[in-house]
Amino acid sequence: MIPGTFDYHRPKSVSEAVALLADLGEDARPLAGGHSLIPMMKLRLAVPRALVDLAAIADLRGVRRAGTDIVIGATTTIAELIASAELAVALPIIRETALVIADPQVRARGTIGGNVANGDPGNDLPALMQCLGASYQIAGHAGTREIAARAFYQGAYFTALAPGEVLTGIRIAPPPAGHGWAYEKLKRKVGDYATAAAALVLTMRGGQVASAAIGLTNVGDTPLFAEDAARILTGSALDKATVDRAVAAAEAITSPASDGRGPAEYRTKMAGVMLRRALVRAAARATH
Amino acid sequence: MNEMTPPTAAERTDKLQGMGCRRKRVEDVRFTQGRGNYVDDLKLPGMLYGDFVRSSYGHARIKSIDTSKAKAVPGVVAVLTAADLAPLKLHWMPTLAGDVQMVLADGKVLFQNQEIAFVVANDRYVAADAAELVEVEYEELPPLVDPFKAMAPDAPVLREDLAGKTSGAHGPRKHHNHIFEWTVGDREATDLAFRDAEVTIKEMLSYQRVHPSPLETCQCVASFDKIKGELTLWGTFQAPHVVRTVAAILSGIPEHKIHVIAPDIGGGFGNKVGVYPGYVCSVVASIVTGKPVKWVEDRIENLSATAFARDYHMTTEIAATKDGKVTGLRVHVLADHGAFDACADPSKWPAGFFNIVTGSYDFPTAHCSVDGVYTNKAPGGVAYRCSFRVTEAAYCIERGMDILAQKLGMDPAELRLKNFVRREQFPYQSALGWEYDSGDYHTALRQGMEKVGYTALRAEQKAKQEAFRRGETREIMGVGVCFFTEIVGAGPSKNCDILGIAMFDSCEIRIHPTGAAIARMGTKSQGQGHETTYAQIIASEIGIPADDIMVEEGNTDTAPYGLGTYGSRSTPVAGAAIATAARKIKAKAQMIAAYLLEVHHDDVEFDIDRFRVKGLPEKFKTMKEISWAAYNAVPPGLEPGLEAVSYYDPPNMTYPFGAYICVMDIDVDTGVCKVRRFYALDDCGTRINPMIIEGQVHGGLTEAFAIAMGQEIAYDEIGNVKGASLMDFFLPTAVETPKWETDFTVTPSPHHPIGAKGVGESPNVGGVPAFSNAVNDAFAFLGNTHIQMPHDAWRVWQAGQKLGV
Ligand SMILES: Cc1cc2nc3c(=O)[nH]c(=O)nc-3n(C[C@H](O)[C@H](O)[C@H](O)COP(=O)(O)OP(=O)(O)OC[C@H]3O[C@@H](n4cnc5c(N)ncnc54)[C@H](O)[C@@H]3O)c2cc1C
Prior knowledge:
Oligomer: heterodimer
Number of helices of chain A: 11
Radius of gyration of chain A: 19 Å
CATH architecture of the largest domain in chain B: 2-Layer Sandwich
Distance between the termini of chain A: 53 Å
Bound molecules: flavin-adenine dinucleotide
Radius of gyration of chain B: 28 Å
Shape of chain B: globular
CATH class of the largest domain in chain B: Alpha Beta
CATH topology of the largest domain in chain A: Uridine Diphospho-n-acetylenolpyruvylglucosamine Reductase, domain 3
């Protein structure tokens, strides 16, 4: 439980960070809250030669409006997501999700950027970002780019982020006022990653689902965007038969690992149960 | 109160904070301020740090070990392998169970994470880096993980060192992976009881492999002084004196030149009873380098390499009459001991006190046999917060009784009431050989049933079952009843020893001239609060305030020899030694008091904190005055001073008992179980400090909850240990932990000087079956007879699926 040897850098700006990462090459890694990276280093599953700590880059932290969109800086901590009045109103599902991530100590250090950039299918925010249709703002040596969360995840710990790139912010267009939302997470205990979890945002019109978006956590190599399930629900009054079909469609795209949280079959079924429960709560919250 | 008014008897009693007082824990003053003094707090000049290279495989031959790269790292002082320990004959060591165990892998490895090499460096980080550079070449061997396959004719040979040995420390061996067979009871009579039985049940009850999780892992600092030829060993030792003796035998250093010191310990739960390779390697490294060497294991090492607990697979049969009278009990246990038999049991008890398995019931006959086998898993088999194998026994009989009740269509509480050993039967001879000292089981269970509203709970459960059947709810409800009898306080020299040393314990008390005192014992607190409770015993016995008594344990140079703290033995054994030492002091104090009062010693009597002249209560000498006089005015012929030593060999064990009831709600769609209510009635005899008892019960129930509902050290089919970190090994936080309701009855032990029985382990012993019975009870109406532990969500869900919910 002791990491190997590494160098430590603490740049003051994004450009400095990007330049450093370019200089140091593939063995350098950005460091945010350290609550995914440092445990891996202690187990020597990750052995970076150098860490580029993003903590001193003031620009990367905080929640701000950009027109109608909301941009969350990459080093905003999970605790800050919970405390944000802006998010509580515009994107209450973020707060609900953040509250079931890890424990207060981890949330005080862990950042949204690290959470979504890590590529750990166990993290809760990636599926939520897919559900919300978020896009990731990325800075690299060659300039900046933006990529949809739904296109970002390629495999476990394998993302569209190229070596040397830094995630700077997350841009989200909030769903309309009156939308329904729920993040349902089944876990063994406080501080545990999900056995299965479902993020759901929907809007209702005249007793029918006008739109729905669903993300699933920790039931595949990547977060899963359950498009078919959402399509099945759209236009329905959430009658039992439709919900059953949607749940089956969501379950069908899962391929969870068997681990201490349970065998694959169980975790698939739990993804379905979480979605079912999320539907009940989200529909009750939707005001149209 | 007017200053002139003499304090009343009640006020004088209160001032002592003696037995029965909810005295605050004195040790918490330092613990809650971060001022404890643990092994890892110790920093000595020039100290070196050790770290292990551990096996990647569960079973493999070691073809070569190349330490050259590690040795070349600046700061590395030594890298020890079995080859370095062999000339000292320390590459293997004896275990407490009469087996031998590799200190460092000798030719092969037998479990994953087994110790292979010990890297010693001047910096902890350098040691870890260098350990990575030790190159071990393995040749994989077929692993043996399933204990049920251990004795198959073609099972791989694990212990090549035992080739040709047809008998071990506990008799004949039936197979190359067999360790011992232990049998007790009347086989013929039991077979007859089953032949003639109206009703029988049979079920294989597995108690999974788990591991204690003390906050502090196992650790030590060894410091050998070459000039004096003396070894000082600080360590996390539940039994420091035994460690000193073992160290003397192993190292050849004379015992008086070995100083073993157990400073504050952050929890033990049985994990810190044994001797581990880390200790031996640290000692050797210190002798070799001439420097102090520290070894501190990390959490993964702790969970995967130091002693585990349980791993008992108990085929349980009960015979009974149609109306629910038990007539016989037959149990066969397959015990998975891992790669070496390193169980921490009294020497003559290879399966501990498992023969307490008749529980609280009047079985006319019983038979029990235990087969111990080797597998490619870590060694151990410690009593994780229980007396030796008592938790396993309690689980076996308490699940068994529930299964029988179900078969009979009887209420499980009623079946227990019907079969309890009755109050007038004590002292009671059990069919498997124990003499239960005392008990009043009916009163305890009835009190519990009344407090929880048992009848109403059963009615509610019935209504819920009907609602479930009608499809109105997906939640079911279970009521788990457990009535346990423990056997603690090992133990009488006639049948209990560790490596030949009888399991007495000891106390030395010195009263200083001002009436303050120091008391030392052969036990060692790991969080039990000895500094608080021991002082309370002395306060009541000799009448000086507990606050004026310092209790000290753990330094083998100053404390009298004792066998340590585990198996709830501190109060039953050391507590008795404390009372007897105190009584010796009291007897001398009486002589001094009589002398000072100028009367015959038969004419004075003890009164709370003083001796007074019989019939003349205003003529007295306080213990404070007597203490002073002990140093300047003793009666002619009496030695000055006021101190005493006592070594107590208990005449019998003590038998605490309790009634636990758990109400559980289960979501069948997810398998998530919620403890709605948990009621724990404990009878530990005389209650020394009710607050500490409650604390012990809270902690033990939390551990029992963890074990029953999620803990498991599992291995995959090739011998990789799974879940050996706190990410997977279930340690409940305050959020998951249910609320505990405690209660008590008091049935003092008739043979113990103060009637106390020990309580620290009862909640673990009684808790596990209560949780498991609750889960099983919830599914019983759907046809379930037994679901194996742990009852984590996925297994409960799976059980529900099998029952078609
Ligand atoms: C006990 C425990 C329980 C946890 N439980 C949960 C849980 O239930 N749910 C959950 O979602 N998470 C959980 N986590 C993870 C926690 O939320 C992490 O803190 C988070 O996932 C990573 O954020 P970080 O800021 O700590 O990132 P770091 O650990 O610093 O970095 C993680 C990875 O992302 C890279 N990275 C970080 N920031 C950037 C950036 N701006 N640009 C590019 N790359 C970057 C790093 O190089 C590294 O590879 C848990 C962690 C612990 C220790």
